[in-house]
Amino acid sequence: MPSKISLFFMFFFTKYCFTFYVGVFAILNFTHFPVNYSYSLWYQALKAPILELNALNLYKCLRMKNALLFCFFFLVIGFMKSQTVVRNVDAATFQKLMESKKYVLIDLRTNDEIANKGMITGAIQLDYLNKDAEKTIAQLDRKTPYLVYCAGGGRSSECAELMQKLGFAEVVNLEKGFDDWKRKGFETIKK
Question: Which of 47, 41, 54, 40 is closest to 25 using CA atoms?
Answer without folding.
Answer: 47
